[in-house]
Amino acid sequence: MYRYDTHMPEERPPSASERAYKHVKDRVLTGKLPGGELISEGEIAEALGVSRTPVRAAFTQLESEGLLRLYPKKGALVVPVSAQELEDVIETRWVLERYAIERAIQSPGDLPTRLAKSADRQARLSGGEFVEADRAFHRSLVEATGNAILLGLYDSLRDRQRRMARATMRDADRQGRTSKEHRAIADAIGAQDRDRALAALRTHLEGALATLRGGPV
């Protein structure tokens, strides 16, 4: 009788280039490597204990993602977030989340309750936990459309939003307003008041954009 092998294969450890990619990307997204800073293959290779070859591959991949700009024999420049990129991300979010609200208004179900709980929880958070809760609130709104393509598009903004969120974390007043604005959106959806919900979303996104414009990212 054939015996099935139930032993799960061991997970492959990350390659040197994967380690270099994650190392640099994490530091760019968290601001440890700020926009405008020039980094070299040698310093990253030394920090990770690898050769320059996998670091070069990681730099090339990050350049394709728009996070680095390579300069032969000089290194790689961390690309700053531009004013146009800020506006483009907020505009994309408005299109996605406006549609999500219009769908939710028709049949809100338990979405308003879940969003309200998320907003109330966020009011007690700070730092990275606050940023993740903020993103989770908006993702839940888009996810409620049931449209996997729209959700995938929203998720594709994750890295850009994570990098931009540092400005929000520096503004304690903005964090307090965010949870209140989230609650206003949730309450308007619960009341099935389309105009009030869209106005609350617009106020929220414009406030976020104003905060992002307020300082370097």
| Spatial strand arrangement across the major sheet | 1-3-2
* Shape designation: elongated
CATH-derived architecture of the largest domain: Up-down Bundle
Query: How many domains?
Result: 2
Please report which band the strand proportion falls in: under 5%, 5-15%, 15-25%, 25-35%, 35-45% or over 45%. under 5%
CATH topology tier name of the largest domain: Four Helix Bundle (Hemerythrin (Met), subunit A)
Q: What is the N-to-C succession of helices and strands?
A: HEHHEEHHHHHHH
CATH homologous superfamily placement of the largest domain: GntR ligand-binding domain-like
Structure class: mainly alpha
Q: Rg, please?
A: 21 Å
Low-pLDDT ranges: none
Care to describe what's here?
- The protein is mainly α and 217 residues long.
- The protein has 2 domains: 16-78, Orthogonal Bundle (Arc Repressor Mutant, subunit A), CATH 1.10.10; 83-213, Four Helix Bundle (Hemerythrin (Met), subunit A) (Up-down Bundle).
- It has helices at residues 16-30, 41-48, 52-64, 83-106, 111-122, 127-143, 148-155, 158-170, 172-190, 194-213; strands at 38-39, 68-71, 75-78.
- Helix 9 (172-190) packs antiparallel against helix 10.
- It is elongated.
